[in-house]
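Each lists sequence, tokenised fold; shown next:
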Amino acid sequence: MGVSLSKGQNVVLNQDGTPLADVTVGLGWDAEPTGGAAFDLDASAIVCGPDQKVLSDDHFVFYNHLTSPDGAVRHTGDNLTGAGEGDDEQLLIDLDRLDDKVGQVVFTVSIHEAAARGQSFGQVHDAYIRVVDNLTGREMCRYELSYDAAGETAMVFGALYRRQGEWKFRAIGQGYATGLAGIATDYGVNIG
């Protein structure tokens, strides 16, 4: 098992010096439905430049736009129920294909139709994000979110970024009461 991170911590992914070409970012959660409405959580990735803003609207990768323009970031598909063990949704990142101007890839999870269904991350538990080296299958790091987010309907789980030739991961855990629209606004994505 890889490094277990706390909120705000960073880790060098290839700290043992082995080449790192592509990774899977797995996200998981469990939810407690209230009022009979099922939860549908959606993972997404925002490919940002050095200014921490999305490179273009096409660099917002989610269930309805599964691949970045360069093919470096690919969403494996929407899991409508979150049922079962393991990752609920995954994004595949080909690090070698990412343009040099990419500063970071930010990973988010939002609750679909949260306001209409009266749902929030306060009803979500066992949420995590992990990074797996696709060559070895080794989990390099994991961040388990562990705080009360009663009014928040979307969260930035973490970010993969490049610093001085090394790939790193940052555990973020920032919640938004304004849903995915709030995250999109902060990162310059036009979802209108």
User: Anything to note?
Assistant: The longest helix spans residues 179-187. The helical segments are 114-117, 179-187.
